[in-house]
Amino acid sequence: xIAEAAAAVIAGAGALAWxxxxxSAQLFCRSIWRGPKTRRAIALxxxxxxxxxxxDLLSLLHTYGVRATFFQIGHHARRLPRLVRRCVEEGxxxxxxxxxxxxxxxxxxxxxxxxxxxxxxxxxxxxxxPPRLFRAPYGVRWFGMRGILREFNLTHVAWxxxxxxxxxxxxxxxxxxxxxxxxxxxxxxHDGRELxxxxxxxxxxxxxxxxxxxxxxxxxxxxxxxxxxxLEGGARQP
Length: 238
Hints:
- The strands form 2 sheets. Strands 2, 3, 4, 7, 8 and 9 form a 6-stranded parallel beta sheet that branches.
- The longest helix has 20 residues, at 2-21.
- Mean pLDDT is 93; it is low at 5-10 and 234-238.
- By secondary structure, the chain is an alpha/beta fold.
- 45% of the residues are buried.
- The chain contains 9 helices and 9 strands.
């Protein structure tokens, strides 16, 4: 009986961990992690900005005519408001990535709501329209999130491929990402490093300088997440 109980606890913990972090998990909220496989299109996403390095990324995206979705932190948006507006002006989509990037697991609903609400207010004001997408810090969802996202008309976005550009060099990023890209993929890169100011994103930029022309040559369209997932008319909540 003790062994069975222990096995049940372990199984339950594993299921909870998958529900919180699994890219396709829907346990705590509706979550998008890829688009249709029938269209040769992908969505580039960038987390943890805006940062002082975002301008270099915007220049690179402009060079290749690529639009992306930026999941921005409220703290950084208030710190660098012109970069939020610049993203919008250049046709990119803005998503909510919490206010100060805390881990939301083991947190109460009120804490989670305050993190989402404060970022939503800041980003709505600076971007000129409320974000309709949310990505939890580290991609980890938790209890209470479904109702909070419904309140703010937000849809959670996970990813198909995590670039790991926060820890790999350019060669490593390319080697990790390139073979995993398929039609409908949502790719998660970073133009910031959590709450750090003046982050070094040179590996990300160097990798994208190699990846973008290859994807263009392969015939991929670059869509925002809302376009890829068919949410142009507004986020749909269950």
